[in-house]
Amino acid sequence: MTLIAEHRGVAAWLTLNRPEKRNALSPELLREFDQHLDLALDDPTVRSIVVTGRGTAFCAGADLKLAQELAASPGRNPFASLLEKLQASPKPVIAAVNGATFGGGLGLVAAADIAVAVNGAVFSFSEVRLGLIPAMISVFALPKIGPHHARRLFTTGRRFSAAEALDYGLLHRVVDPQALQAAVDAEVDDIAAGGPQAVAASKRLVFEIPPLAAGAELTPALDRASELFTRCVTSDEGREGLAAFAAKRPPAWRRDP
Length: 257
What we know:
Blueprint: E1 3-8, E2 11-16, H1 27-42, E3 48-53, E4 57-59, H2 64-72, H3 78-88, E5 93-97, E6 100-102, H4 104-111, E7 114-118, E8 122-124, H5 135-156, E9 160-161, H6 162-168, E10 173-175, H7 180-192, H8 196-208, H9 219-233, H10 236-247
Parallel strand pairs: 2-3, 3-5, 4-6, 5-7, 6-8, 7-10
Antiparallel strand pairs: 1-2, 8-9
């Protein structure tokens, strides 16, 4: 079993389980990851998905067998599809970065919606040190770190700390190792406080209405935003949320079953 899947409250925890290989991604691990991710996405009791690693590393990237398999894959390879699925997930994905994270492991971090790391974690876009490039993960990392940092990190493969990763935009929080569970639980609770449909729609909003360039026309974006807002306000979930607020009671999605 290369991946441990478990429920912790309203979160599905997916733990990479190859500690002896620093949780390097193998073909078997990738397949198990994809299967359990689908199960979590289909489970109505799951409100968020947490990805973490067992042992002292989060993920050392692809192992040799996977790298060879990905190179031989025609068209889009399965790792690219997994990263896309994580980013497109209507349920927020939280990366609980418990240790060293290299190569493809940074793809998992960048594809997540929220990333919390321990202060001893070390990171590297290490592909150039192997004569490779951070090709697929760049699609997810570039919007977070921008070209300024990417030009240095991609071309040098240098290692950087959790504090630097926070500054670059890859992480949201850095905590002591013993505080990682509590920090992730707080994120899970914050997500569960919102309506499931509203949370999913809010995530889509980030990609549907990206930041506008200087001098761009505002009207199309505002018209689309107004349309989406009206749709939410008139939905069953929106009406329930407003009614619960007026009645000073918990909304339906916060009540015990």
